[in-house]
Specification:
The protein is mainly alpha-helical. It has 21 helices and no strands. It folds into 2 domains: 192 residues, MFS general substrate transporter like domains (Growth Hormone, Chain: A), CATH 1.20.1250; 203 residues, Growth Hormone, Chain: A.
Length: 415
């Protein structure tokens, strides 16, 4: 097993399932860790003397840390290997959440920094692993399954954190969830030979500066168009989760319980969307045009959101919310599979890191800009503007389109 998963990539479904599991777990675990503090935001804010709205700052800091760590994730993959990089992030992320239990602003900032820095390398590392299956059938679906780990982490946070907070208090809940997750990550690292004996990743052949992933993206027109579009897609994804409840209660007159249930429905639609779009992407010659189609549906859903009123039946509102969830939270797998296919295997970590830096920028800026716009022109107009931005982003992303057969010939020529 010292030769790791290169040989496993040639093996059957059982080996592929193991590789999927060891790439799924780190992203799911760190996603859960990052989404746990917002679940107990009221208790943490009260202990620190802040208002619960501080959770908005928390989300921004998490993704700012992810942007920074994405910039050096390719170097980590080269030194540690992609699987060990992912499980190292689980251990450090768990440590960060446990540190959050210290009720002091300085400790909280350090804890948030650790969790955010642990988030960034996960997608580049797991994409580097899955790149070994780039020439096989079902590549986009495989990446999409891996990407369901992010919303599943949110589901776990919502299920695990509240009872622990009620039974133990928020401090003990942070320590318990953080320590157990870190210990589990370390145990899997030690127990699974494909991780324990992993060789370092092959050098990608480019510079090691913090901005090298961004420079790499801009040196490739196709990657640049995809990465640019992801800024808006990611912004729409965070706008959906951040503002849906407040918008449905204010504009559509729903009670908070029903609005919360529709938020959950949107997230489940996102999981289904990731799987469904990935399945379709493996069966079309132009996945970038599929992304344009997703953007078009996302724009339509955003436009319909702007028209919601209390006169709308709940079923119609649910339909719009589900469509928005399936698109705004469902594009990721197709997007990342295209990144993997457009570069050499050794460059996958670098290319994914650069593209995720763009996407994380959208998550940092999107909710704050949308909120500021909504405060000036109202939520309906803000949703219309977002719909227009999403459609424009789809056109930008499709501008780098190449037919899959053309891309395959180009790859063979480079080889």
């Amino acid at each position: 097993m010292a030769r790791g998963f290169d040989a496993m990539a040639q093996a059957g479904g059982e080996a592929k399932a193991l590789i999927l599991l060891v790439t799924f777990f780190p992203q799911c675990a760190v996603s859960m860790l990052s989404m746990t503090p917002p679940v107990m935001a009221s208790q943490i804010a009260r202990a620190l003397g802040f208002s619960p709205q501080i959770v908005g700052v928390y989300v921004g800091l998490i993704y700012a840390g992810a942007i920074l760590s994405s910039s050096f994730s390719a170097s980590l993959i080269t030194r540690l290997g992609p699987l060990r990089t992912g499980f190292a992030c689980v251990v450090t992320g768990g440590t960060g959440l446990a540190l959050l239990a210290v009720p002091h602003p300085a400790a909280s900032l350090l804890a948030i920094a650790i969790i955010g820095l642990s988030y960034g390398p996960l997608t580049p590392a797991s994409s580097h692993v899955l790149a070994r299956y780039r020439d096989g059938a079902g590549m986009a679906f495989l990446v999409s399954v891996r990407q369901t780990s992010v919303p599943m982490g949110g589901v776990l946070a919502g299920l695990v954190a509240p009872p622990l907070v009620l039974g133990l208090g928020w401090n003990a809940a942070c320590v318990t969830i953080g320590a157990v997750t870190a210990a589990l990550g370390a145990a899997i690292w030690i127990a699974v030979s494909v991780i324990r004996n992993e060789l370092p990743g092959k050098p990608h052949g480019h510079g090691a500066g913090l901005l090298e992933p961004v420079r790499f993206i801009f040196r490739h027109r196709g990657l640049a168009s995809l990465a640019t579009s992801s800024v808006v897609y990611a912004a729409m994804q965070l706008v959906l989760s951040s503002f849906l409840v407040v918008y449905l209660t204010s504009a559509a007159g729903l009670d908070i319980v029903l609005a919360g249930a529709l938020l959950s429905a949107s997230q489940l639609a996102g999981v289904a969307g990731r799987l469904g779009w990935g399945f379709v992407a493996d069966r079309v010659a132009a996945p970038r045009l599929l992304l344009l189609g997703i953007a078009l549906l996302m724009a339509v859903a955003a436009g319909l959101m702007s028209l919601l009123t209390a006169a709308w039946p709940v079923g119609a509102i649910a339909g719009v919310v589900i469509l928005l969830g399936a698109t705004a939270s469902g594009w990721n797998g197709v997007f990342l599979a295209e990144i993997i296919r457009d570069v050499r295997p050794a460059e996958v970590g670098l290319a994914t890191a650069g593209s995720m830096m763009f996407a994380y920028m959208g998550t940092v800026l999107g909710p704050s800009l949308f909120g500021a716009l909504a405060s000036v022109v109202g939520f309906p107009t803000a949703y219309l503007v977002m719909g227009g931005a999403v459609l424009l982003a789809g056109l930008v992303g499709a501008s780098g389109h190449t037919d899959r057969s053309d891309a395959d010939r180009s790859e063979k020529a480079r080889a």
